[in-house]
């Protein structure tokens, strides 16, 4: 079976000379389709940098990254943009919703940009909002929603184009622990029911505990792995 994501001897350095920082250091990994993986580790250990490399948002200094069997490091930027639009969903700590748009409008925006018809947009946005349990809140703007509800809108937006991989960078970082667990549960359940691979970088041990596998990072490397592949 082709891995959803794979990396071989991936290195990412920032700067050069004396000020060079090796944020990711010789990482090799393989993540199966539908797996839920958490990158954990201290601040500065390289979680976000690795997440960005796996998502094709950044390119390695050396080494290779594969997304569903396609090698990303040599892929032209135009193809990477298409891949990110069609195959990948992103969720961030700060939700990233557009304040003037309702929850529904935030969720259907990526489909609008992709040129989908209004009928299909409406159906898919409503389905995505149902999936995260926000059916009754679709007309609300972000400031009328709690932090947890805003993150649910962000998850619905990330899933509306039916991606195969969801990347979440500190998705519970601005939430209390109970709300964080609800969000973690939604990510896990949606991943399992729709076969979406989920990769999250997190300091939240409760969220990490929900993952199938935890990759513990230290100084840019994977120091240990906990959980079955
Ligand atoms: N664009 C950049 N330019 C220079 N150094 C960078 C850049 N991005 C990250 N770094 C450095 O790379 C290292 C790893 O950073 P990264 O953000 O990946 O860690 P992290 O584990 O996600 O940290 P946190 O948990 O605080 O978000 C850090 O030393 C950081 O300062």
From TrEMBL:
<dbReference type="GO" id="GO:0005524">
    <property type="term" value="F:ATP binding"/>
</dbReference>
<feature type="domain" description="ABC transporter">
    <location>
        <begin position="5"/>
        <end position="227"/>
    </location>
</feature>
<dbReference type="InterPro" id="IPR027417">
    <property type="entry name" value="P-loop_NTPase"/>
</dbReference>
<keyword id="KW-0067">ATP-binding</keyword>
<dbReference type="InterPro" id="IPR003593">
    <property type="entry name" value="AAA+_ATPase"/>
</dbReference>
<protein>
    <submittedName>
        <fullName>Uncharacterized ABC transporter ATP-binding protein MJ0796</fullName>
    </submittedName>
</protein>
<dbReference type="Pfam" id="PF00005">
    <property type="entry name" value="ABC_tran"/>
</dbReference>
<dbReference type="GO" id="GO:0022857">
    <property type="term" value="F:transmembrane transporter activity"/>
</dbReference>
<keyword id="KW-0813">Transport</keyword>
<dbReference type="InterPro" id="IPR015854">
    <property type="entry name" value="ABC_transpr_LolD-like"/>
</dbReference>
<dbReference type="InterPro" id="IPR017911">
    <property type="entry name" value="MacB-like_ATP-bd"/>
</dbReference>
<dbReference type="InterPro" id="IPR017871">
    <property type="entry name" value="ABC_transporter-like_CS"/>
</dbReference>
<keyword id="KW-0547">Nucleotide-binding</keyword>
<dbReference type="GO" id="GO:0098796">
    <property type="term" value="C:membrane protein complex"/>
</dbReference>
<dbReference type="GO" id="GO:0005886">
    <property type="term" value="C:plasma membrane"/>
</dbReference>
<dbReference type="InterPro" id="IPR003439">
    <property type="entry name" value="ABC_transporter-like_ATP-bd"/>
</dbReference>
<dbReference type="GO" id="GO:0016887">
    <property type="term" value="F:ATP hydrolysis activity"/>
</dbReference>
């Amino acid at each position: 079976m082709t891995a959803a994501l794979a990396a071989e001897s991936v290195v990412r350095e920032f700067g050069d000379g004396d000020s060079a920082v090796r944020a990711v250091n010789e990482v090799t990994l393989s993540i199966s389709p539908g797996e839920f993986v958490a990158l954990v580790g201290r601040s500065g250990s390289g979680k976000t940098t690795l997440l960005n490399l796996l998502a094709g948002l950044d390119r390695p200094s050396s080494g290779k990254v594969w997304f569903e069997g396609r090698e990303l490091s040599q892929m032209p930027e135009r193809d990477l943009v298409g891949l990110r639009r069609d195959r990948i969903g992103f969720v961030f700590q700060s939700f990233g919703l557009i304040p003037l748009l309702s929850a529904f409008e935030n969720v259907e925006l990526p489909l609008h940009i992709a040129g989908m018809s209004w009928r299909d947009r409406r159906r898919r946005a409503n389905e995505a909002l149902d999936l995260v349990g926000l059916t009754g809140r679709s007309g609300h703007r972000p400031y009328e929603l709690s932090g947890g509800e805003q993150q649910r809108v962000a998850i619905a937006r990330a899933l509306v184009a039916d991606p195969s991989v969801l990347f979440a960078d500190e998705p519970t970082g601005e939430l209390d622990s109970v709300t964080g667990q609800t969000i973690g549960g939604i990510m896990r359940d949606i991943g399992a029911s729709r076969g979406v691979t989920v990769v999250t970088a997190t300091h939240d041990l409760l969220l990490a505990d929900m993952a199938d596998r935890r990759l513990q990072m230290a100084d840019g490397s994977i120091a240990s792995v906990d959980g079955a592949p």
